[in-house]
Amino acid sequence: MDSCIFCKIIAGEIPSSKVYEDDKVLAFLDISQTTPGHTLVVPKEHVRNVLEMSEKTALELSSRLPKLARAVKSATNAKGLNILNNNEEVAGQSVFHAHIHLIPRYDSNDELSITFTEHEPDFDALAKLAQKIANEVTA
């Protein structure tokens, strides 16, 4: 059997607090509970992350997100919700089975901090980078 902890949860070898399951996707509470109701949504197919995911698996996974996000927000009475996905260790991925975090937010002063820096944009540099990325998309 695969040593992946999420594969073991999917197989029922490790207990979890399931909130949703169908033939393609499993959602369960994260044991870390960054905030109460922190839920992980995983494809049942073992795939490392979005970078290695097929379009079919991505569609199966993402199509469940709105329903699950609404359920988590409603059940927890959260004021909002972050949907977060980390790809590779440098980006914070610690379990190498694709998963989406649904993190309820109750107060803008909670301990979770996600920040974006603001600075004057270099539109020429942005245009060049956008073109480089667009070329990769069509490659």
UniProtKB/TrEMBL annotation:
Keywords: Methyltransferase, Transferase. Its EC number is 2.1.1.-. A motif (Histidine triad motif) lies at residues 97-101. It holds the Pfam family HIT. Signal peptide: none annotated. One of its GO terms (molecular function) is methyltransferase activity. GO terms for biological process: methylation. The keyword Transferase applies. CDD domains: HINT_subgroup. Residues 5-113 form the HIT domain. InterPro entries: HINT, Histidine_triad_HIT, HIT-like, HIT-like_sf. This is HIT family protein. It comes from Streptococcus dentapri. The lineage of its organism: Bacteria, Bacillati, Bacillota, Bacilli, Lactobacillales.
